[in-house]
């Protein structure tokens, strides 16, 4: 209907004289219809391209399923081709021979829309051949330990791929496969790990909650060691807050501050329990409390709660004599 009406308007406009008052309105309507028709064509092309990519991925996956390729022997090579477009040389990401094919992860745009098809494609392959998950782990571990060999834009693509892989629950990819290889001193010092993990966090939180991210960090044994991703010059709670606040990850900053606060409370409680058990001098205990409150900036209400809990825990409670319990509590206070 839009196209038919568009052609009618064109014919009418050509047949009218310039002096006719309706000419301008018809011309405006024609212009709007042209814009609308162009938008429809663009939407149609995008839809067809997306459909074509899905069909191609399915066909390729089925073709690989029916092929006689020895995946058990060349599984690592297969994922090297998926990531870099060719078989890579030891100690580098460059193809062993020839040129890269243009459909690899590091050759596409650094956008989730461009990288997601590769994740879905790998998911299809892994469902048909689950044993390939070990090869994927091997290749990802090797690439993550070699981040310095990638360009900035390529590292971002790897981070986006990794985040999407966890979002899509890529056949049980273990988080430790990703996080542990990143803790190489030379990568951390250069800030490459911090940049990678920041892109990973930002992309993962697009589709997932902070609780989901914390769950992955726990399974990767990194929840309590997030500062290990930072170069030594920035490895402090203040550096953590400054960096991730600047990157727009305020919920992560708030979570970390709460966790640090809880750790300081536990440390203070443990120190007080030890001092009371050792019957340390009261003035020494008071000085210790004041210093910890000052250093950790603990609110008074939390300090009072901890002091009360520690004092009551130190009382030798009797299960029968209530008067003895009361006297013991008063004596302890």
TrEMBL record:
InterPro entries: ARM-type_fold, eIF5-mimic_regulator, HEAT_5MP1_2. The chain crosses the membrane at residues 40-60. Residues 58-264 form the 5MP1/2-like HEAT domain. It comes from the Eukaryota. GO terms for cellular component: cytoplasm; membrane. Keywords: Membrane, Transmembrane, Transmembrane helix. SUPFAM superfamilies: ARM repeat. This is 5MP1/2-like HEAT domain-containing protein. The lineage of its organism: Eukaryota, Viridiplantae, Streptophyta, Embryophyta, Tracheophyta.
């Amino acid at each position: 209907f839009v196209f038919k009406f568009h052609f009618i308007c064109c014919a009418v406009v050509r047949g009218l004289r310039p002096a006719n008052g309706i000419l301008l309105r018809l011309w405006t309507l024609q212009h709007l219809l042209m814009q609308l028709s162009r938008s429809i064509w663009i939407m149609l092309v995008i839809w067809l391209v997306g459909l074509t990519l899905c069909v191609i991925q399915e066909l390729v996956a089925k073709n690989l399923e029916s092929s006689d390729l020895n995946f058990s022997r060349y599984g690592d090579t297969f994922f090297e081709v998926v990531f870099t477009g060719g078989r890579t040389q030891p100690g580098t990401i460059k193809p062993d021979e020839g040129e890269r094919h243009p459909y690899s992860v590091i050759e596409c745009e650094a956008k989730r829309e461009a990288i997601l098809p590769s994740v879905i494609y790998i998911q299809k392959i892994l469902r048909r051949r689950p044993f390939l998950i070990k090869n994927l782990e091997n290749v990802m571990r090797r690439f993550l330990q070699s981040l310095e060999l990638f360009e900035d834009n390529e590292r971002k693509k790897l981070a986006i791929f990794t985040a999407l892989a966890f979002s899509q629950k890529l056949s049980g990819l273990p988080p430790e496969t990703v996080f542990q290889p990143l803790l190489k001193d030379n990568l951390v010092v250069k800030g490459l790990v911090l940049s990678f993990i920041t892109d990973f966090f930002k992309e993962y939180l697009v589709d997932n909650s902070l609780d989901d991210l914390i769950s992955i960090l726990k399974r990767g044994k990194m929840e309590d060691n997030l500062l290990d991703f930072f170069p030594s010059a920035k490895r402090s709670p203040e550096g953590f807050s400054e960096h991730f606040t600047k990157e727009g990850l305020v919920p992560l900053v708030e979570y970390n501050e709460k966790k640090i606060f809880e750790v300081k409370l536990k440390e203070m409680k443990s120190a007080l329990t030890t001092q009371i058990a050792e019957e340390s001098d009261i003035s020494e205990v008071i000085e210790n409390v004041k210093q910890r409150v000052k250093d950790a900036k603990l609110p008074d209400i939390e300090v009072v709660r901890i002091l009360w809990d520690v004092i009551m825990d130190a009382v030798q409670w009797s299960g029968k004599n209530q008067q003895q319990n009361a006297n013991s509590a008063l004596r302890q206070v």
